[in-house]
Design a protein that fits this description.
Layout (H helix, E strand, L loop, with lengths): L4 E2 L7 E7 L11 H16 L3 E6 L2 H13 L7 E5 L7 H4 L2 E5 L3 E6 L17 H9 L3 E3 L1 E2 L2 E2 L8 E2 L4 E5 H5 L12 H12 L3 E5 L16 E5 L2 E6 L8 H13 L9 E6 L4 E3 L2 E3 L7 E2 L3 E6 L4 H12 L4 E6 L10 H4 L1 E4 L1
Parallel strand pairs: 2-3, 3-4, 6-7, 11-12, 14-15, 19-20
Antiparallel strand pairs: 1-5, 2-21, 5-6, 8-9, 10-11, 13-14, 16-17, 18-19
Length: 346
């Protein structure tokens, strides 16, 4: 029997959110203490509305985290702990992608995380998909194409749940920077998307935002807010490095078609002012929001555009509360709410 797979949209009903409590201070040099409390606040907001599946490195850290959650009055009855040491906390990329299939309901996909083809310490992160699938009691499927493991991060793709997927050329097709799958073509990726995610239509954007450690992840660029509407970041200052690539992406979106041949509705989201820290450009983006069952968590950056972004996103989700979460410390690790989380569909 042929198995039909479907990659649900993030705005569909969720069982919960996979998170990993930060224990690698090297990801946030000088800010690790603040990060832990920022993370407690993140867990609290998710646990108010759905389950949290929280990876912790060991029993000792679990006890510490429970104490912190209790101090912050988190709804701990909605938090389940999974003991698993990791290299980092970016569950969007090292965690499994859970999809629906026609055989047994849900299936966890292991896309062979390799440290974004940039870092050498990812051996512990590679264990996350099997550990999470076992905890959730979901079968795990290894992504293989033409006899080889396929590498793909969750942050590189976004789905409308109907067969259309957003991704970027910079992340997946660059010939020599952070190459995930050597000699892969668009046709190869589209075959993988069809087989494992049930995708029939791919919208390819160009480049990602400046300073992005992942080299072009889509979840800092544009996202589906419903099955026919895409929200995308644009830079208003022509002197900024992000101006031209984001204008190019906007042009591509206006020319794009959905799986049904219709044109998507396009909504523009501002960028925060450029953030530099310790001589590094930090990839801050309002597109890194996380959609939950009853609310949307939006990263904010102590910026005048925070309010504008919250209002625009609010207009996209009439049925959900919009909650801004200060991400000025989190972003020092080169990612925020969406990068740190992975939704588990119901």
């Amino acid at each position: 029997m042929e198995i039909h797979r479907r990659f649900p949209a993030e705005f569909e009903k969720q069982q919960g959110i996979l998170l990993c409590f930060p224990h690698n201070g090297n990801d946030w040099p000088g800010k690790y203490g603040a990060i832990q409390w920022a993370f407690v606040e993140f867990i609290k907001k998710v646990a108010n509305v759905e389950d949290v599946f929280l990876l912790v490195a060991n029993e000792k850290l679990k006890e510490k985290v429970i104490g912190m959650l209790e101090m912050a009055h988190v709804n701990i009855s909605n938090v389940s702990f999974i003991i698993q040491k990791t290299n980092r906390s970016w569950m969007r990329d090292s965690g499994p992608i859970v999809i629906k299939n026609s055989k047994n309901g849900r299936e966890a996909l292991n896309f062979n995380f390799n440290g974004w083809a940039k870092y050498s310490n990812f051996q512990l992160d590679k264990l996350v998909p099997s550990k999470v699938a076992e905890f959730l009691n979901i079968p795990l499927k290894q992504a293989i194409y033409k006899g080889k493991s396929v590498i793909l991060e969750g942050g590189a793709i976004d789905s409308n749940g109907k067969g259309t997927l957003l991704t970027s050329e910079e992340c997946l097709l660059h010939p020599n920077i952070q190459v995930r799958n050597e000699n892969f073509t668009k046709a190869d990726y589209e075959a993988v998307f069809k087989e494992y995610l049930g995708i029939t239509n791919v919208i390819w954007l160009g480049d990602g935002i400046e300073g992005d450690d992942t080299h072009g992840h889509i979840d800092d660029l544009c996202r589906f807010v419903n099955e026919d509407t895409i929200i995308t970041v644009v830079e208003s200052d022509p002197k900024e490095a992000n101006y031209a690539p984001l204008q190019d992406n906007l042009k591509r979106l206006h020319a794009a078609k959905l799986e049904n041949g219709e044109s998507p509705k396009i909504i523009c989201l501002p960028m925060p002012k450029r953030i530099d820290f310790d001589k590094v450009i930090i990839p801050a983006s309002y597109a890194n929001f996380l959609i939950l069952n009853k609310c949307v968590l939006v990263p904010t950056f102590n910026d005048p555009n925070d309010r504008i972004a919250l209002n625009i996103i609010s207009g996209c989700f009439s049925d959900r509360e919009i909650i801004g979460i200060s991400a000025i410390d989190l972003i020092w690790g080169f990612g925020t709410l969406h990068c740190l989380s992975q939704q588990i569909p119901e």
